[in-house]
Amino acid sequence: MTSLNVLISGAGVAGTTLAELLTRSGHRVTLVERAPTLRHTGYAVDFRGAAFDVLSELGILESVRRHDTKMTGTAILDRDGTQVDHLPAEAFAGELEVPKHVLNELLYALTVDHVEYRFGTSITSLTQTETEVTAELTDGTAATYDLVFGADGVYSKVRQLAFAPHSVALQHLGLSGAGFTMPNFLALDHSGLLRAVNGTAVYLFNSADPDRLTVSLSFGTPSGALDRLARADQEAATRTAFAGDTWHTPRLLEAMSEASDFYFSSNAQVHLDSWATGRIALLGDAGYCAAPAAGMGTSQALLGARSLARHLATADHAEAFARYEAELRPYVTENQTNGRSAAALFGGAQED
Fold it and tell me: Residue ranges of the FAD-binding domain (predicted)?
């Protein structure tokens, strides 16, 4: 098999997993990441079904298991904070859940010796012919590659350059929200609380750190425009959505402004007719995000990377890309259907 020179955009789960599997097949991989360093923030990630096979193949399954958050479940509360139902741990934590930074660090350690990482760098243009792709980068350099992969998330630059603008590829699910951590004033112990009222949802949980409470404040929005605004505007929108709410909400809103790990995002799905064009292909959230509320992003990233690597080991890129999409699209379609339902649970608009 001919060794390929490959460029991957995005050092998340999809990109690093693909990088590892491709180097095992003898390919040379350069991975560019917009962030200046490895990301150490984000919610916990969970694993379901066949994703365990990929972790095992990577050789990190037992290491991942050692960081299990051991969630016990989530209490469903009414407006007054009275429990009315209970969801098992699997509803939000899958079969295994770990802090996101743990998985990022394990994958980075697995790949750093044989993958060229270029942090603080992203792609500015892509030009392809039948035989190669030329990528220009933000650091002013340019190089040609046999294949380019976009694993750079919902707002993928690769997708924007080579496939479609965000306005075409993204389907907003009517839900946005702020996330952060604060002192665990409710003394939750590896458990969560979910309170949905009038198109808003408060989700609180404690997992890895007994002293910290992770807070998610979700509310209905007509678009994902808030994602592109400054933090002050995002906080203001969140306060407006929860104005007049009682329970612990005023305390949560106060903690939001003090949080050093504030995060804001909208639930959106990515829909494309094809995940490949010529020598460029997408994987993970960049190609087929099912929505964060679905809890399937990590599993889709792992399975997509493995599928691509396996098919590239036995076929040329055109055939490999076709097989990859045929294999994964039914799985993605099911997850996206579930993602719309999950977003509705948190106050978003469910669509057929």
Answer: 5-331
Task: Taking each helix axis as running N to C, give the angle between helix 13-24 and helix 51-58, from 0 to 180 degrees, rounded to the nearest 10.
Answer: 50
Identify the domain boundary among 267, 282, 298.
267
What three-state secondary structure class fits 210? Answer: coil
Containing 63, the helix (H) or strand (E) segment is helix 61-65
Phi, psi dihedral angles at 179 (to 5 degrees)? -135, 145
Last residue of a domain, one of 267, 287, 306: 267
Contact 91, 75 (CB under 8 A): no
In a domain, 83, yes or no: no
> How would you write the pLDDT of the chain (352 residues) with one tens digit per residue?
689 999 999 999 999 999 999 999 999 999 999 999 988 766 778 888 899 999 999 999 999 999 988 888 899 999 999 999 998 877 766 678 888 889 999 999 999 999 999 999 999 999 999 999 999 999 999 999 999 999 999 999 999 999 999 999 999 998 899 999 999 999 999 999 999 998 899 999 998 788 999 999 999 999 989 999 999 999 999 999 999 999 999 999 999 999 999 999 888 999 999 999 999 999 999 999 997 766 788 999 999 999 999 999 999 999 999 999 999 999 999 999 888 887 776 665 544 3
Measured between alpha carbons, how far is 113 from 38 in angstroms, rounded to an integer?
15
Residue 53: half-sphere exposure toward Cβ, Cα within 13 Å: 8
Same domain, residue pair 184 and 249: yes
Q: How far apart are CA 20 and CA 41, in angstroms?
A: 22
| Structural contact between residues 177 and 216, judged by C-beta atoms closer than 8 angstroms | yes
